[in-house]
Protein backbone atom coordinates (compact mmCIF):
# COMPACT_ATOMS: atom_id res chain seq x y z
CA UNK A 1 0.00 0.00 0.00
CA UNK A 2 1.26 3.46 -0.89
CA UNK A 3 1.18 5.81 2.09
CA UNK A 4 1.15 9.44 1.00
CA UNK A 5 2.77 12.18 3.05
CA UNK A 6 0.67 15.19 4.06
CA UNK A 7 2.23 17.27 1.28
CA UNK A 8 1.65 14.57 -1.34
CA UNK A 9 -1.95 14.15 -0.26
CA UNK A 10 -2.47 17.92 -0.40
CA UNK A 11 -1.02 18.04 -3.90
CA UNK A 12 -3.02 15.05 -5.11
CA UNK A 13 -6.36 15.96 -3.58
CA UNK A 14 -6.43 19.71 -3.03
CA UNK A 15 -6.91 22.46 -5.58
CA UNK A 16 -4.29 25.23 -5.57
CA UNK A 17 -5.05 28.68 -6.91
CA UNK A 18 -2.37 31.28 -7.70
CA UNK A 19 -4.85 34.03 -8.59
CA UNK A 20 -5.39 36.32 -5.60
CA UNK A 21 -7.79 39.25 -5.63
CA UNK A 22 -6.64 42.50 -4.04
CA UNK A 23 -10.08 43.36 -2.65
CA UNK A 24 -12.06 40.26 -1.72
CA UNK A 25 -11.82 36.69 -0.48
CA UNK A 26 -9.73 34.32 -2.59
CA UNK A 27 -9.46 30.57 -2.05
CA UNK A 28 -5.78 29.75 -2.54
CA UNK A 29 -6.25 26.11 -1.51
CA UNK A 30 -9.45 24.04 -1.48
CA UNK A 31 -9.75 20.51 -0.15
CA UNK A 32 -12.74 18.46 -1.36
CA UNK A 33 -13.26 17.07 2.16
CA UNK A 34 -12.52 20.24 4.12
CA UNK A 35 -13.80 20.38 7.69
CA UNK A 36 -12.74 23.99 8.33
CA UNK A 37 -11.92 27.28 6.62
CA UNK A 38 -8.62 28.97 7.51
CA UNK A 39 -8.85 32.68 6.67
CA UNK A 40 -5.79 34.96 6.54
CA UNK A 41 -6.16 38.76 6.80
CA UNK A 42 -3.18 41.09 6.29
CA UNK A 43 -2.42 44.33 8.10
CA UNK A 44 -1.61 47.96 7.27
CA UNK A 45 0.36 48.48 4.08
CA UNK A 46 -0.06 44.76 3.50
CA UNK A 47 -1.33 42.67 0.62
CA UNK A 48 -3.25 39.36 0.48
CA UNK A 49 -0.33 37.72 -1.29
CA UNK A 50 2.81 39.75 -0.55
CA UNK A 51 2.23 39.76 3.23
CA UNK A 52 2.33 35.97 3.38
CA UNK A 53 5.18 35.49 0.90
CA UNK A 54 8.82 35.20 1.97
CA UNK A 55 11.82 36.77 0.28
CA UNK A 56 12.58 33.50 -1.47
CA UNK A 57 9.06 33.56 -2.99
CA UNK A 58 7.52 30.92 -0.70
CA UNK A 59 3.81 31.67 -0.31
CA UNK A 60 3.18 29.77 2.89
CA UNK A 61 -0.67 29.61 2.71
CA UNK A 62 -0.21 27.19 -0.20
CA UNK A 63 3.45 26.10 -0.12
CA UNK A 64 3.60 25.16 3.57
CA UNK A 65 0.23 25.36 5.35
CA UNK A 66 -1.69 22.54 3.58
CA UNK A 67 1.16 20.09 4.17
CA UNK A 68 1.52 21.14 7.82
CA UNK A 69 -2.10 20.14 8.42
CA UNK A 70 -1.05 16.55 7.68
CA UNK A 71 -4.18 14.38 7.88
CA UNK A 72 -6.47 17.29 8.71
CA UNK A 73 -8.44 18.88 5.88
CA UNK A 74 -9.11 22.59 5.50
CA UNK A 75 -9.64 25.25 2.90
CA UNK A 76 -7.18 28.17 2.95
CA UNK A 77 -8.55 31.60 2.09
CA UNK A 78 -6.99 35.05 2.01
CA UNK A 79 -8.83 38.37 2.24
CA UNK A 80 -7.59 41.51 0.53
CA UNK A 81 -8.54 45.13 1.19
CA UNK A 82 -7.09 48.60 0.67
CA UNK A 83 -4.60 48.68 3.54
CA UNK A 84 -3.98 52.44 3.25
CA UNK A 85 -6.72 53.23 5.74
CA UNK A 86 -5.41 56.34 7.45
CA UNK A 87 -7.88 59.16 7.97
CA UNK A 88 -7.30 62.39 6.09
CA UNK A 89 -7.02 64.50 9.25
CA UNK A 90 -4.48 62.28 10.99
CA UNK A 91 -1.31 60.76 9.65
CA UNK A 92 -1.03 58.33 12.56
CA UNK A 93 -4.46 56.86 13.32
CA UNK A 94 -6.63 54.72 11.02
CA UNK A 95 -10.07 56.08 10.21
CA UNK A 96 -12.88 54.31 12.14
CA UNK A 97 -15.04 54.82 9.07
CA UNK A 98 -12.63 52.94 6.85
CA UNK A 99 -12.17 50.18 9.43
CA UNK A 100 -15.93 49.58 9.55
CA UNK A 101 -16.17 49.61 5.75
CA UNK A 102 -13.44 46.97 5.50
CA UNK A 103 -15.04 44.92 8.27
CA UNK A 104 -18.43 44.98 6.56
CA UNK A 105 -16.85 44.11 3.20
CA UNK A 106 -15.08 41.18 4.83
CA UNK A 107 -18.36 39.86 6.25
CA UNK A 108 -20.10 40.24 2.89
CA UNK A 109 -17.29 38.77 0.79
CA UNK A 110 -16.60 35.77 3.04
CA UNK A 111 -20.29 35.01 3.55
CA UNK A 112 -21.00 35.10 -0.17
CA UNK A 113 -18.01 32.87 -0.86
CA UNK A 114 -19.03 30.30 1.76
CA UNK A 115 -22.63 30.28 0.55
CA UNK A 116 -21.45 29.74 -3.02
CA UNK A 117 -19.22 26.87 -1.92
CA UNK A 118 -21.93 25.46 0.40
CA UNK A 119 -19.50 25.66 3.32
CA UNK A 120 -21.46 28.08 5.54
CA UNK A 121 -21.43 25.69 8.50
CA UNK A 122 -17.70 24.98 8.45
CA UNK A 123 -15.73 26.27 11.46
CA UNK A 124 -13.49 29.28 10.79
CA UNK A 125 -9.92 29.73 12.01
CA UNK A 126 -8.62 33.27 11.52
CA UNK A 127 -4.92 34.11 11.10
CA UNK A 128 -4.62 37.88 11.27
CA UNK A 129 -1.60 40.16 11.01
CA UNK A 130 -1.34 43.52 12.77
CA UNK A 131 -4.22 45.82 11.79
CA UNK A 132 -5.96 42.89 10.11
CA UNK A 133 -6.86 41.72 13.62
CA UNK A 134 -8.74 44.99 14.22
CA UNK A 135 -10.64 44.52 10.96
CA UNK A 136 -11.60 40.97 11.93
CA UNK A 137 -12.71 42.00 15.42
CA UNK A 138 -14.89 44.73 13.91
CA UNK A 139 -16.24 42.21 11.40
CA UNK A 140 -17.21 39.78 14.17
CA UNK A 141 -18.84 42.56 16.18
CA UNK A 142 -20.83 43.55 13.10
CA UNK A 143 -21.72 39.91 12.38
CA UNK A 144 -22.80 39.25 15.96
CA UNK A 145 -25.14 42.23 16.03
CA UNK A 146 -27.15 41.11 12.99
CA UNK A 147 -30.29 39.67 14.54
CA UNK A 148 -32.91 39.71 11.77
CA UNK A 149 -33.85 36.36 10.24
CA UNK A 150 -32.81 37.49 6.76
CA UNK A 151 -29.37 38.43 8.13
CA UNK A 152 -28.53 35.09 9.72
CA UNK A 153 -26.26 33.97 6.89
CA UNK A 154 -24.05 36.99 7.71
CA UNK A 155 -24.23 36.29 11.45
CA UNK A 156 -22.93 32.78 10.73
CA UNK A 157 -19.38 34.18 10.57
CA UNK A 158 -19.53 35.01 14.27
CA UNK A 159 -21.21 31.72 15.14
CA UNK A 160 -18.71 29.70 13.08
CA UNK A 161 -15.55 31.32 14.49
CA UNK A 162 -13.59 28.71 16.46
CA UNK A 163 -10.21 30.37 16.84
CA UNK A 164 -8.29 33.57 16.06
CA UNK A 165 -4.50 33.67 15.82
CA UNK A 166 -3.33 37.26 16.30
CA UNK A 167 0.09 38.19 14.92
CA UNK A 168 1.16 41.58 16.27
CA UNK A 169 -2.36 43.00 16.59
CA UNK A 170 -2.70 46.08 18.88
CA UNK A 171 -5.60 45.28 21.23
CA UNK A 172 -5.82 48.52 23.21
CA UNK A 173 -8.57 50.97 22.40
CA UNK A 174 -12.13 52.09 23.07
CA UNK A 175 -13.70 48.84 21.86
CA UNK A 176 -11.74 46.50 24.12
CA UNK A 177 -14.57 46.18 26.68
CA UNK A 178 -17.11 45.48 23.96
CA UNK A 179 -14.79 42.92 22.40
CA UNK A 180 -14.57 41.22 25.79
CA UNK A 181 -18.34 40.72 25.73
CA UNK A 182 -18.10 39.15 22.29
CA UNK A 183 -15.49 36.68 23.53
CA UNK A 184 -17.69 35.90 26.52
CA UNK A 185 -20.65 35.29 24.23
CA UNK A 186 -18.55 32.88 22.20
CA UNK A 187 -17.21 31.00 25.23
CA UNK A 188 -18.61 27.73 23.92
CA UNK A 189 -16.01 27.74 21.13
CA UNK A 190 -14.49 24.28 20.67
CA UNK A 191 -10.90 23.69 21.74
CA UNK A 192 -8.47 23.42 18.79
CA UNK A 193 -7.83 19.67 19.15
CA UNK A 194 -11.56 19.02 18.71
CA UNK A 195 -11.97 21.40 15.80
CA UNK A 196 -11.45 19.00 12.93
CA UNK A 197 -13.64 16.37 14.60
CA UNK A 198 -16.60 18.72 14.21
CA UNK A 199 -19.09 17.54 11.63
CA UNK A 200 -21.26 19.98 9.71
CA UNK A 201 -24.94 19.11 9.39
UniProtKB/TrEMBL annotation:
**What does the organism's lineage look like at the top?**
Eukaryota, Fungi, Dikarya, Ascomycota, Pezizomycotina
Does this entry carry the keyword Flavoprotein? no
Q: Where in the cell is it found?
A: Endoplasmic reticulum; Membrane; Mitochondrion
**What residues form the membrane-spanning segments?**
none
Record-given protein name: DUF676 domain-containing protein
Q: Which organism is it from?
A: Bionectria ochroleuca (Gliocladium roseum)
Q: Which UniProt keywords apply?
A: Endoplasmic reticulum, Membrane, Mitochondrion
Any one annotated GO CC term:
endoplasmic reticulum
Q: What is its main location?
A: endoplasmic reticulum
- Give the matching InterPro entries: AB_hydrolase_fold (IPR029058), SERAC1 (IPR052374)
* Keyword Transferase listed: no
Amino acid sequence: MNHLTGREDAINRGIFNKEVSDYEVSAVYKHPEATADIVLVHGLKGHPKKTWRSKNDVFWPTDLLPASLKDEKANVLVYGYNADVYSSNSAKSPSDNHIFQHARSLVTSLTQFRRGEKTVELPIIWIVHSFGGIVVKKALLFSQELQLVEQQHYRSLFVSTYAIIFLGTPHNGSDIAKWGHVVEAAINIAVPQKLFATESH
